[in-house]
Design brief:
By secondary structure, the chain is of the alpha/beta class. It is 33% helix and 25% strand. Helix 8 runs antiparallel to helix 9.
Amino acid sequence: MAGSARILLIGHVTRDIIRVPGRRDREQPGGSVYYAGMALCGLGHQVTILTRIASRDEALLLADLRRAGARVENLPSARTACFVNAQGPGGIDDRVQEMRAEADPFGAALLQAVQGLSCDAVYFGSLLAGDLDAALILRIAECFPRAIKLFDAQGPLRVRHDTHVMPCVWPDGRQVLSVCDIVKADQEESLRLTGARTAAAAAARLADLGVAQVLITRGGQGALLRSGGRSRRLAAWRPRSGVCAIVDTTGCGDTFLAAYLHAVLSGRPPQAAAQFAAIAATMKLTRFGPLCCGENDIVAFAAQP
C-alpha cells in the first residue's frame, strides 16, 4: 500500500511537563497518540484520533494535531492526564516519571465513535492500565477486521499510585496481543510482559502469540525486530559524524512506531522499515515536541555528515 493511508489512533492526549537538568521546565501536549499522530500527519496519512481530555484543555492540547491535518474527536473527561517527564542522572535512557492527574478511561462511547469509520490501520496508544480495557480493545479490533492492528505495550504495564508511575502485570495481555499484527515494547516491558529472561526470548514468545512483527526498543542501544521467524538486532541510528545533539527523548518510542507503520504501509520489508523508524526516532531526539515532517526530510536527515 503506497501513499496516504487511513489511520485511526485511540488513546489519551496528555499535558506533559518536560524537565531537563539546566533548562526551564517546558509544558506541552503529549501522549502516545499525540506523538504518533503528529508523525503520521507529517508523513502524509489521513489521521483520525479518538481521545479523552477535559473540555477546557481541548483548544490548547489538540490545536497542533488539527493544524497538522488530523481529525480529532474528544470524548470529554473530567480531567486531563498530566505527566512530568524528568531526565535522570543516567542521561538519555534514564527517565523519572510522575503523574499528576489521570483522565477518565475509555468506555462504551468509544464503540459509538468508531461506528462508520474505515481505516487501514488501528493504533492502540494506551498510557495506563485500565484506560483501554481488554474487552473494549477486542471489540474495536472486530470492527476493523482487515486493518493492521498496532499496540504499544507500555500502558497496560503500569499503574498510578499517588503521583508515582509503577510497573504492574497485565493479566489480559495474551488475549489482546493475539489479535495484534505489530507490537512495540521497551526491553524491560517485554520481559515483564512475557516472563522471559532476554529480549530475544520475549520477542519469540510474543511471536508465538501470533504477532507478526515485534519491536523491542532499547534506547541508545537500538532495537530488536522479530518477524518471519527471525530476530534481528538493529543499532540506534546516528549521523556519520557520530555527533547527535539530544534535546528531548519524550515521544521517541511513539515516533519510532509511527515511522515503522508508515514504512510498512509504503511497502518496505520489516528490517528496512525498522531502519527508517530508527532514523526518524533519532531525528525526534534533536528537538522538543513531536516530529512532524515528510519522508524526504527524514531521508535528508539520514544523509547529513
